[in-house]
Each structure stands twice: as structure tokens, then as C-alpha cells.
Amino acid sequence: MWLRQVFRDPELGGADLLYSRIPAMLGLGQRAPLPFATEQYRPWPDTMPAIRPLVRRTARHRNCLGLILHSHYAAGAYRRAGVTEEKILVAHNGANPHLSDSAPGKSEARALLGLPAGRPIALYAGRINEQKGLDQILALAALRPDVLFVLVGSEGQGAIETEAGRRANVRTVSWQEPAALPLWLHAADLLLVPPSRAPLDQFKNCVLPIKLFSYLAAGRPILAPEAPDTAELLVDGGNALLVAPGEPEAAARALDRIIGDSKLADRLSAGALASARDLTWDRRAERIQAFLDRRLESVRSG
């Protein structure tokens, strides 16, 4: 009902195109009164096969400029549903490089945040709940009591916060504004993507997590699971160490390597910064604009 109201809005009369990020556009976009594009990050046609005919019919409509996907992993689902290549753009998310550029070094960041100066710190930044694979970080913390694990992103006392509170080497921090987050990232020795496939396979609510782009821009070593979505950006030994998901002992050994080998840590940090150079919001906007200009010209020329 809301989408139909948008379609009837007189403001659309002066627009060149309608750009939407709501999933309903995959089924109702063909009713749009002007050329449209829709941006999605979940592989809906794979997780909900019943909508494949709707997606295919919407994408084939003359007014459909195309679909913008956040990952090649998600884009594959739309290709399998019958969306043609010319109507697909993979535009990875990004980070604001200026936020990391102005962040202090590790020692100063720790002093400002009240974190211990000489203790190894492994940090996770993102939503804290049971669907993020954080049980694997807690299991890792149990194996490495000398390391301080900082979980940034709490929005209240939940199961993860309760379990973390039982561990002397785990600290939870409330959700931080984007401008404040780089200070926490720069205070860490390494940054953690939970070594779990549950967010992607079981809960299906996390595809190429946005935290990863801030991690890369921070230029800190990254410890992450081997997974088909993060494999688009992370290279084992290049900008991260990748471990088999669901194996805390393997993650602990990788953590030891990062903390104990300064040359490896420096190489991973440099690799992260190199990867981040093209992963900015401005660059993403430029790619999307070029795609829309090209597709809009194609529709207008018939």
C-alpha cells in the first residue's frame, strides 16, 4: 500500500527515475510510472524461491533500469532467477576514509578510551546479538585469556552481553556513532569478523557485512572466516587471515600468529589499506551513477 502511494505521488512527475531499496520493488516495480532501479543486499531469490517469477518479470520490464547488489554473492541469486547481466551492477559498500585518516595511533587511542596499553586487544564492531556468530568469539576468548576481547555495538543486555560478563577478558561497549568508531578500531591489534557461517547460512541476514569496509579502512589486521561473501574482498595472507568457521582452536592459532609476528601484522595492515582505497562511498556513488546514466539512456533510446 505504501509503495502504491509513492507511485501516485505528484512529486514523481518531475523525476527522471525512481531509486528504491525496499524488497517489495522486486515484485511491484513493474507498476512504477517511470524508469526505476532497486538496490538489494540479500539474495532473496535463493532464500525465497517462490519470488523468482516476480523478480524475473520485474527485471524484464522495459522501465526497469536494473538491480544494484552489494555483493557478487547476492548477485548470483538474481542471475539464477533470470535477470540479464546488463541489468545487474555489483557495487560494494564503502567507508569514509576521512574518519580513519584523522584517527590517532594505537597508543593514543587506547589512552583516550581507557584501554590497557600493553595488553593484546582483539576487537569486534557491529551489532551484538545471537545471530552474528559471536558465540565463536566468546569461545575464542576462552582459549586466549591473556587477550582482551572488546565487543563494540551493544544495544542492551542480551544473551551475548550476559555471557561476556562472565568472562574476565571480554568487554562489551555500547553502539557507537560512525564518527566515533575509528577510534576503537585503531586501538586494536586485530579486528574480528566472527569465525562462523551462521549469519550467512542459518540466519541469512548478513551478506558481506558493512563492518568489513570500516575494518579495511582502519588498516588493522583482520581475522575472519572462510566464506563465499567475504572472499570477494579478503585474501588470506594478503589483507586478512582466514580460518575455517566453527573451529575456535584454528582461530586461536591465527590470532597467535598476528599478535606474535609483527611483520605479518604489518603486511596484513598494508594489504587492508590498499584494499580500502577503492572502497569508499564516493566511489560507490560514482559507479551507481554511471550505471544509471547508461541504463537510462538505453531505455530512452528504445
Description:
- The protein has 302 residues and is of the alpha/beta class.
- The chain has two domains: 2-93 and 281-301, Rossmann fold, CATH 3.40.50.2000; 97-276, Glycogen Phosphorylase B (Rossmann fold, 3-Layer(aba) Sandwich).
- It has 15 helices and ten strands.
- The protein has helices at residues 2-8, 25-28, 44-47, 52-60, 72-80, 97-101, 106-113, 134-143, 159-164, 181-186, 198-202, 211-218, 248-260, 262-276, 281-301, and strands spanning 18-20, 36-40, 64-69, 88-90, 121-125, 148-154, 170-174, 190-192, 222-225, 241-243.
- The strands form two sheets. The chain has a six-stranded parallel sheet, with helices on both faces. The chain has a four-stranded parallel sheet with strand order 1-2-3-4, with helices on both faces.
- Strand 3, helix 5 and strand 4 (88-90) form a beta-alpha-beta unit.
List keywords for this structure.
elongated; 302 residues; 4-stranded parallel sheet; 2 domains; alpha/beta; 15 helices; 43% helix
Question: Which spans of ≥5 residues are poorly predicted at pLDDT below 50?
Answer: none
Q: Which radius of gyration do the C-alpha atoms yield?
A: 21 Å
Beta-strand residue percentage: 5-15%
Strand order of the largest sheet: 7-6-5-8-9-10
Described by the principal axes of the CA atoms, the overall outline is: elongated
CATH topology of the largest domain: Rossmann fold
Q: Number of helical runs? A: 15
The CATH homologous superfamily name of the largest domain equals Glycogen Phosphorylase B
Task: Report the span from N to C terminus.
Answer: 31 Å
Number of strands: 10
Please tell me the CATH architecture of the largest domain by its name: 3-Layer(aba) Sandwich
What is the element string, with H for helices and E for strands?
HEHEHHEHEHHEHEHEHEHHEEHHH
Tell me about the largest β-sheet.
6 strands, parallel
Mean pLDDT: 95
| Helix/strand class | alpha/beta
Q: What is the CATH class of the largest domain?
A: Alpha Beta
